[in-house]
Amino acid sequence: MSKKSAQEDTSDMCVKAWEALALKTAINKEDIECVIVVTQNPDSNIPHVSAKVHEALGLKENCACFDISLGCSGFVYALSVIEAFLESNNLNKGLLFTADPYSKIIDPDDKNTSLLFGDAAAVTLIGNDAVYLSGKYNFGTIGKLHRELICNNSLLSMNGRAIFDFAARYIPADIKSLLEKNELNVNDVDIFLFHQGSKYIIDTIVKRLKVPAEKAPFVAGEYGNTVSSTIPIMLAEYLNNTVYKTIVISGFGVGLSWASCILKRK
Length: 266
Known about the structure:
The chain is α/β, with parallel strands linked by helices and 266 residues long. It is 31% helix and 24% strand. It is built from 7 helices and 10 strands. A hairpin with a 2-residue loop joins strand 6 (149-152) and strand 7 (155-158).
């Protein structure tokens, strides 16, 4: 599983993600008006990670920066938030970071978690020149199950069976509801990008939705479950391939919560 170095912190991972993006995409930092960081493992409780990222990137002063405390569903939730924030405040461009290094809270002797999670960060440029536009979203929470994936005394604890049962019960129904809300069916979707919790979970969801396996990849075998970064890492592989016109993204886990939406190529 991928793991950050002892010298790296969450904000450092965000900066590395930015550097990778800047190598591929011409971005004027003066155009960035909003920075959101999705994490539940910040550098410290105070200040927010996005403030440290703002400093490291040398962004302008009139730039909104805030963090969102969500786990596996975080990218999809935050995508909805940043879209609404930009639109309602007449802003044009923002950066959405995801960085949740679970190596900070994993007990190396706990094989239920130490062999499952990996560290990664991603950044997504959001603006009016987008490659994909989002459709309607679905969100949900089963708060009474929050103890099944929890960090107490700085150590992560997970009931793997409970997480599987949650995903198998709620996510197929949510995807069916999402498709109906967006007036689509399974065959209209080019690819389903599910949170990479485990191959067993994804295989079960795919079977219950009757989706061809090749339309719902599992790619995290080498680097692990990277929490809120799993979806943007996968999405980056499809941005430049015009074959993929309609994409479902769905994140689910910590909370226990989920969030799903449709992306359509412009």
